[in-house]
Each structure stands twice: as structure tokens, then as C-alpha cells.
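pinging the channel bc i need a second pair of eyes. not urgent but kinda urgent?? the chain im working w is below, pasted from the shared doc
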Amino acid sequence: MKTHRIYDPETGGFYTTQFDSDFEFVNPIDYYKNSAIKLAVTMQRDMLALQKIPFPPELVERLILKKSIEMWEERFKEIMSTTVPINLMAVLTCKTKKEQVALLKGVQINPDQLLAFLFKAWTDRAFKFSQYSGEHHPKGTDKKDLPTIINLERGQVKKIGKTKLTDGQLKQAVQQRKVVIAKFLDNDDSWHCLFTTFNSLKGGETWKGGQPHYHYISDKFGFTRDQVIAELKSRDYKLGSLPHIDLLDYKL
């Protein structure tokens, strides 16, 4: 997970962003632990810098790291105490697509349950975690022409960085961008994938009137793992009809 601090010349403040390249076959607990601690350190460092605390920098850094680790440990306890839907855990041991589709009918999760599922798939079943993304801008939009930050607030365009595009073009670039995020769990030849789109997360798909959701697919669906990744990275993936898992309590 890469963390960036981007200066906002208009307000004198900073945007803190996190971005991940694709990664494969990791311990999900270690991955989220490292990401959470790194972000907490960055945020606390920024807040303390504004207060100009009169302590040696080395001491401040040690205190920041200690606090960040403590915050993660509390968060980890919360996640591991979260109940994962029984049917979602059960798909990890199913032998057929038919069983998996039947089990997932009506399953709903929230963000904490999703993390608990990834963690418990590792602790209980030794499933390693991978994540892949696919991103496509509107046709005719060159990524190098985009500014560093584009933020839409109540229909208004906020931008940081150089661009020759108009606010209307930038708004279109954000609203029409296609992004897919896919989470894979692997144990030997068995794999499971939950993927969603930015359009789904912002309520822009037709499923249940805009209900954010994940799609599910596994090695039992007739596609190879590489075929699924390639499709999800394409502009318009084609994987047939797939089970939906509603994502509740999600906020952009």
C-alpha cells in the first residue's frame, strides 16, 4: 500500500491518499495490519506537526508508532469478533457451482464482515489473499492529461495539479471512469473471487435499485483464474450471470 501526501495550495492543507498495485498470495491479516499502521502513522504525524510539540523528533516518532500499533490491535479485535454469515464461509468448502450459488442467495455483508471473512479464510482454511484492479477512463481521455486530484463536491469540480481539460471534461472523466476491484482467496487449486465496481459502490448499477454489492465467482464456474483476471481488467468483462452479495453500510 502506497501512501501519498498531496499539498492543497488553496487551503494550505494536504490530501492523504492510499493506492495499491496488484499483489498476490499474501497473508491478509499482515497486509491490512501494515496498511492500517502506515496510514495511522501518516495521519498522526500530520496532526502533531500542526501542534508543534516541543519533544525530540525521535521520541515523537516512537510514540506515534506505538499509538498506531495499539489502534490496529483494537481494530483487529473488532474484526475478529465480527460474525461472518455461515453461508459465506461455507462456500470455501463446496464441491460444486450449484451449491455455491444456492448458499449465496440472499447473503448480505458489511465492510467489517468482509474483512472478517478474508481473515478467517486465512486463519481457519489457509486461503491466501490477492487483489487485482482494472481501470478504464472514458474513450478519448488520456490519463496523462488528468490532474493529481479530482474531487467532486456537490457537483463542483475541485482539482489539484496541472491539466488542460475543462471542469466539464474532468467531471465526465470521474463519472464515466470504469474501475473493478477483485479480491481472490487461494488454497492450492481452489480459488474464490469477490469483485465490485466503483459504479456499484456509488449506487450506479441496477441491482436492487442501486444497492452496492459484490459479485462472486470461483474455480467451479468454468473459467480459469487467469481468464477471470483478464476479463476483469478488460473494459467490459464477460463472465455470465453471477451471484450477488449485498454490501450494507458502505459509505464513500
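so The chain has a mean pLDDT of 90. and The CA atoms of residues 203 and 209 lie 8 Å apart. — does that match what u expected or am i reading it wrong
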